[in-house]
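Task 17 of the worksheet. Students: predict the tertiary structure of the chain below and write it out as structure tokens. Keep your answer in the requested format; marks are given for formatting as well as content.
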Amino acid sequence: MTRKKRNFRFSAVTLALALMAAAGFGLAGIHRARAAEAAAGEVVKYQCPMHPQVVMDKPGKCPLCGMTLRKILVPAGQGSPARAGAAKAPAGPAGKVVVGYRDPMDPRIVSKTFKKDSMGMPYIPIYASGAGQGESAGPAVSGLAGFSLDERQQQLIGVRWGRAGVKELEKTVRMGARVGRGGRILGELLEIDAGTLKPGFQAEVKGPWGAPVEARVTSVGHSLDGITRAFGVVLAPKTRPAWMEPGVFCEADAQVPLGRRLVVPQDAVLDTGERQVVFVVQGKGYFQPRQVRTGVSGDNDVEILSGVKAGEDVVTSANFLIDSESQFQEALQRF
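Model answer:
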């Protein structure tokens, strides 16, 4: 064997021994790390950030979405963080009483005990709403319950309210019209608005251009046109602008006074078709549902016949969110 061959064989053996030693040190390091983790009571797992229920022992890709699994630590002897938190509910804010838990994806699903859904997402705590803490107890409304919202929650969903009060109620009756002979305005009062107009009511006529023209109702017909389903109305304008020539089409808006009535803003009333409901603000963030009876409607307000008193504040915005929370609180009380 030549010197060159002996040197090559010696180098190969030396390299192999070095690699074996390095592998031994690496395995020893891994074993030491795992032993340290076990001693600390935690082990390394790999979890999908989008599907928390996917937990594996080795790094790789999520079989559901293909995302790279991220490294996590879980208590030793426990397979997944979803099972890890199933027995212990998260701590809530100081002074808050937890009355149940709701599904994070479907608020209609509630539970008396803390748990997680099929995807490993924790149920959301439901805190006592303060139902029954209102200043005055009103008649119960089937399917709804009173509840409280703090200032931050009210600002988040945009809660606004207006005050019930007695005021002059007005309604605008809009009519299609055209200019007749002698500068008269010939309007058509729809059948649905029959009985609302009387001679002497003030109106406003809008033409193809220019500013509106003030006018006055001079007569209201009593015969219903079988084709247009409307009553004839004659109006007298105070001025005659250039566009007011016979045959020109225009629009007439008449103001109908409805008298002094107890009213609330129209946006305050939730009409289901079977009943009308408002939410009364009773201080300290407490909202009480009230069933009301409504009368005539004006342009912006509606008459209240029963259910609300003058001076009470009623919710005028975010009503549907308030209504949903009220339904949920009522269901929770029954649960």
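Marker's comment: Residues 22-27, 82-87, 130-137 have pLDDT under 50 and may be disordered. Residues 1-28 form one domain.
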